[in-house]
Amino acid sequence: RSSYSCCYFVLPCCFFDFHGKYSRRQSKKTQYREYLDFVAQVGFVCGFHVEEDCLRIPSTKRVSFIGKSRTYPPAEHALIDKQITQFINSRRTCAAATCDRRVGFKHKDHCDGLCEEVGSEPPEDETETAGTIWMPGFQPREKVEQIRNCASLPRDFVDEVVLNVANLLLNAAPQKSCSDMQGGNTNAWNQGGESLSLREVAEHLNKETLKKLKSEYGGLQTLLKNNHQVFEVLNGRVHIRDWRKEKPPSKTKPEVKRRLSAEAFKTRLCWFFIHHPDGCSLPSEACSYAHGTEELR
């Protein structure tokens, strides 16, 4: 709608309509195919010659649509824009009627996704053309999307939470005696004993810390998962990661991943070497992280 000269490319993925999740209407098609037909229909309604292509990408959803030319002359742009407005309003009507089957609405089950309001035109204030209001109440995303996956939290704050949670887990199990260590017991490394639930961990953190984490997507769980070197989070329970139990890297791992792993080797300090009372569970040559600044690459 931005201009007559506009062209577009779209790779449909998640099943959404203009005002919420897309509702299926044709059981004879797969959900994906039905949604693709709907997206193509939007292009046709907007006056485009819609072309379909299948991308050569490693994804199950790789069907794309391209709109490079119009089906109408520039002089009819205002008329088509009114048609687009009516189509958008019909989709909103359809979404409302799905939840509330009120009298005066009719659903066509085999109309290629179109839903019409019977016997009425869209309200006058909702037939605005491009250049005024496209859709009343529509809120686009902010130009700069805020990062809220704990990645932008201050490093000192993250380090403090990691240390507090790790100490909580380590102190949950009895400390190994010196005699065990001297006796050559290879299992003497403190793994933290029983795991703790995320709720139990949260109960031991102060209110200010929890308040800061609540503003992030996933909160405490995301922060702990981000610190993969130290923690393992499974089914809502937190464990100290024991790198002795980690499977060796697969020889069939893609070349790109193997190269990235090799490039990252010894580029970060080993948290266990610095903070764990028993040090790292692995010898220096077997640990991917640096045991001291002299090993850093």
What's the SSE blueprint?
Elements: E1 8-10, H1 31-45, E2 48-54, E3 63-70, H2 77-99, E4 105-106, E5 116-117, H3 155-170, H4 178-182, E6 196-197, H5 198-203, H6 207-214, H7 219-226, E7 231-234, E8 237-240, H8 255-264, H9 271-275
Protein name: tRNA (uracil-O(2)-)-methyltransferase
Zinc finger (C3H1-type): 264-294
Enzyme class: transferase
Can you describe this structure in just a few lines?
The protein is α+β, with helices and mostly antiparallel strands and 297 residues long. It is built from 9 helices and 8 strands. The chain is elongated and about 80 Å long.
Note down, in words, how this protein is organized.
It is a single chain. With 297 residues, the chain is of the alpha+beta class. The protein folds into two domains: 8-94, no CATH class; 155-170 and 191-295, no CATH class. It is 32% helix and 11% strand. The model is unreliable at 101-131 and 177-184 (pLDDT under 50).
Biggest sheet, spatial arrangement of strands = 1-3-2
Q: Which percent range describes the beta-strand content?
A: 5-15%
Distance between the termini: 53 Å
Largest β sheet strand count, sense and barrel closure: 3 strands, antiparallel
Features:
single chain, 297 residues, alpha+beta, 2 domains, three-stranded antiparallel β-sheet, 9 helices, 8 strands, elongated
